[in-house]
Each structure stands twice: as structure tokens, then as C-alpha cells.
Amino acid sequence: MTSGLRRSALADIARFPEDFSELYRGAGYWTEETFAEFTANRSARFADRIAVVGPDATGARRQLTYRDLDESAARIATGLGCLGVRAGDRVVLQLPNIVEYTEVLFAVFRLGALPVFALPAHRASEIGYFCRFADAAAYIVAAEHGGFDYRTLAREVTGALENPPAVVVAGDSGEFVSLASLREQEPAAVAGVHAESVAFLQLSGGTTGTPKLIPRTHADYLYSVRESARICGVDEDTRMLVVLPAAHNFPMSSPGILGVLHAGGTVVLAPDPSPDTAFALIEGERITMASLVPPLALAWLSARARSPHDLSSLEVLQVGGAKFPAEAAKRVRPELGCTLQQVFGMAEGLVNYTRLEDDEDTIVHTQGRPISPHDEIRVLDDAGEPVPFGTAGHLLTRGPYTIRGYYDAPEHNSTAFTADGFYRTGDIVRITEHGYIVVEGRAKDQINRGGEKIAAEEVENHLIAHPAVLDAAVVSMPDQYLGERTCAFVVTEGETPKTLALKAFLRDRGLAAYKIPDKVRFVDAFPVTGVGKISRNELRRALTAALQN
Ligand code: OOB
């Protein structure tokens, strides 16, 4: 391994100004606990309780007690150390919802190394970029999942890198290192890391040509995890079904896997997101809580009537990641027999919850209120002035678990954050008289495809790489099921390619399937705004009009 040549640790990034750090420490929000010691601490308290249940890489059901989880993580940490992974190194994790995900996650943490949370849907374009940009020391995948062979992807990605990461595979590892072999090592000690240093890099939904990485610290993230668990009533009796991809911020920490493990409950990983699988698990595992994006919540609502399963153990259903329409929200309690909790969050930090004890009107019609009394919220007009109370405007935020800057992105940071450290979320919101947030829209060039975020510019750059494409603009179009889908407007020169060929071109460039435009429209030119920029509003209006005809 060549880890000596890798970029040094990231201890010096993501700093909060000292006066704020003092405030958050003084309020008891930031403590000294780190993710390196997380499973050791929980194992001491909850040793024989079941921490995680789910399929393993071979599809067999496996369960781990808190002691098992800590022990496995400690052994795998030694194995990763033997491959050259050191404290501060980055490790790209791309694992589906399998039990090994939790073992590997805490192994990386135990070493003081930093997970980079890729999604199973990512392909060579995204994974190659994460490995290069974060200078990853290791890349960890499952052999295959959902009919896709990740070893092929690993071959493609590592073959193109000058300083490739060590590849570790859960399941049949082929020529790569098998995760099982790492589990045979002696347990590693817990690394001594500073609680206010960066713990991992999360992915931003993004608005720019290249994905942005979000540096979260142990102290800031653990604060949000502890408080989320408290707000959501998570305790030792919680049995949470994880249906969404485990590495996403919502199922990871709101309160998610980490919140449940913090409190001594049980995480149950769903092998696929279908209502049939989920309903059988709710009955069989006596699930008390689950979190979904709106399209899945709609699928549960429509499948409920014809399902024979007993869902009576389900107490709370969280829905977030995209706007959940009030008409659907209303149906949750009567049809699924549980309390709805709306969650409006972002991997950059701020998370809002409706509270379990809120009245039905608040639960149905708002996206909740912030976790922390120290979450600062500003709602501004286009000129940057505060809007009159109750009026919609741009949401900006600053607080004890919201980042002050993306990883290695000084230029983008200068516009994504104000001089006094507020993050410009790109969301348009209004605040109710009770201080709850209602999401009214979005001002950022991002498409929210049922909770999956797509940066318009990233897809446009891939389209423009096609020899026949002169220019491209990717916008959202309304969709009954997903909320939004993507449409690419394309200006070509010479022979216009077929839509299918253009989509295949994007796939061949290694772009994740969810980013491939749902629709392609060839046009002669784009409408422009007064200052000569492409008018995305005009494009969206044209699409909406066309869809209504
Ligand atoms: C969650 O995180 P990200 O980073 O994938 O996406 C954040 C963006 C927000 O800025 C907003 O545009 C949108 O997703 N969003 C919602 C929403 N929840 C997220 N828009 C309307 N209504 C909602 N309830 O998506 C995320 C992170 C932690 C917890 C929950 C969601």
C-alpha cells in the first residue's frame, strides 16, 4: 500500500469558530464521545441485546448482539490496518442493507479512518470521483446486489486510478480481499481521535458539476443522533426497519441506525424496499418504527388494503427526503394505524421533525421544527432581506450540527455559505405561527426525484460530452408518484441522436441510473432570462403546459 503518499488527515478542516464551539460545548451538546468508541461503549451497556438483524452478503439471515458487533468491528479494524488503512484515511463504503454494513462502518470508525458514504446506485463516474477526490485508501463493496456485480465496478474504477485503494469485498471476493478474512484478525484497540475532528464524509445532494463532500465531526453528529433519538422516542424497545439505503443521512441518523444503536434498540435491515417485504418484516420482527421517502409511503398506503399482515406493532412512520403531500399524510394514521412523523433534513446538518405529540393538523401540514434550540433559522427574500413573518423565502441556517463548509471546495463555499457562516439550503420555506417549517419549493438547480437528489449541472456536463450535443439543461417535471422526474432539454448540431442512444451514452459514462433523464427533448435554442442565463423556470413552465395537454 502507498498510504504514505496519501493526502494527510483532515483534522484541520470543518472547524467551527471558537466562540461557537465554546457555546455548543458549554450547552452540553458537544461531548467527548467519538464514533471510534461507540460500539465499545454500547457493548458495555447492552452486551447480549440484539443490535442488528438482516440479510448478510449471501442473503442468509444473520443477527448480531451488541457484543458481536463490537467484536467484529474490532477484528475488521485490525484487518483494514493490515491493508494500510490509517487514522485519518478515507474509506469509500458502498454496501447495500446487509449486516456487514454495520460491522464495516464501526471498523472504519474504530481505526479513526473516515467513511465516505457512497450509495449502492452509484457507478464508475461517481465512485471513481470519490476515490480520487477523497484519495481513498480502501473501497469496500458487496460482491453483488440487485443483479449488479460490484467487483466489475471495482475493477473498472481501480484500473483507472493512479493510486488505487485496496478493495475489500463482502461475499465472494474474486481476486480482491475478502471481508471474511479481515474478520479473522485479533481485535484492534480503539483509536484515540478528537471528538471535534472530522468523523466521515457524507454526500451532498448537490447542485454543481461535481458532487460535494460534507465533513461531519464526531461531536456535531453525535449530538444530532442523541437528540434525534430522544425526540423520536427511541429506546431499548425500539425495533427499527431500515428500508432506505443505509448510508443515506436520513436512515443513518435521523434517528436511524445510529440513533437506535445509541439507545440499545434493534435495527432490522430490509433486503428490498417493496411493501410486501416490509409488511412481512413488520409482522415477523414486531417492528415499531420505520422511515420512508414519499413514493414508498404512497406504495405502503396503496398496498395496505390488500395485505394480510399484522402491522399493529408499528408506532411511528417517518416520512422525509422530499415533500409529502398533505392528502397522503392524512391517510397514514387511519390506514396504517401509526403516528406520522414528517422529517425535513439535509446531510449538511439541519434536521426538522414534527413531534410525536403534535396535533394532527401540524403533523399533516408542516415539515416539523428544528432539533436544537441553537439551530438558527433565517428566511430571506431574493435581495437577502428577512421576509415578513409567515411569508415564503430562502432558508438559511447555522447551528451546532450544520457544517461551515464543504470538503476542499473553497470557491463553492464562498457562495453556499454567508460570511457569518449560515448555510444557504436552496429551499424555499415559510414559518408557521408556532415556529414550524413548511417547505414551499426550491431555488437550487437540483431535481428531487422521490428523495433522490440530482444536481442539474452534473448531468448537463455528461450530456455535453456527447459529440452531437451543443448545450443541455436539465430540469424537473411534476410526477404523481415520484413528485418530480427529470427532463433534459438538449440542443444538438449535426445529426440528432436518438433518445435511447443518448441515455445509453450516459450509462456508458458510468452515471448512476437514477440520474439518467426520464425524458429528453430536443430544441433549437433555450429561452433566456434578462441577464442571458438559461431560463429553467421557462423550461419547467413549457413542460408543465405540455404535460397538461
Ligand atoms: C435528506 O437529505 P439530503 O441531503 O439528501 O437532501 C436535502 C434536501 C433538502 O435541502 C430539501 O431540498 C429536500 O432534500 N428535503 C425535503 C424534505 N426533506 C428533505 N423537501 C421537502 N420536504 C421534506 N420533508 O433528504 C434528509 C436528511 C436527513 C433527514 C431527512 C432527509
Automatic annotation (TrEMBL):
PROSITE patterns: AMP_BINDING. GO terms for biological process: siderophore biosynthetic process. This is 2,3-dihydroxybenzoate-AMP ligase. NCBIfam families: DHB_AMP_lig. Belongs to the ATP-dependent AMP-binding enzyme family. The keyword Acyltransferase applies. The keyword Acyltransferase applies. It comes from the Bacteria. InterPro entries: AMP-bd_C, AMP-bd_C_sf, AMP-binding_CS, AMP-dep_synth/lig_dom, ATP-dep_AMP-bd_enzyme, DHB_AMP_lig. Pfam families: AMP-binding, AMP-binding_C. The gene is dhbE. One of its GO terms (molecular function) is 2,3-dihydroxybenzoate--[aryl-carrier protein] ligase. Its EC number is 2.3.1.-, 6.3.2.-. SUPFAM superfamilies: Acetyl-CoA synthetase-like (SSF56801). It comes from Rhodococcus coprophilus. PANTHER family: LONG-CHAIN-FATTY-ACID--COA LIGASE (PTHR43767), SURFACTIN SYNTHASE SUBUNIT 1 (PTHR43767:SF10). Pathway: Siderophore biosynthesis. Keywords: Acyltransferase, Ligase, Transferase. Residues 42-407 form the AMP-dependent synthetase/ligase domain. Residues 458-533 form the AMP-binding enzyme C-terminal domain.
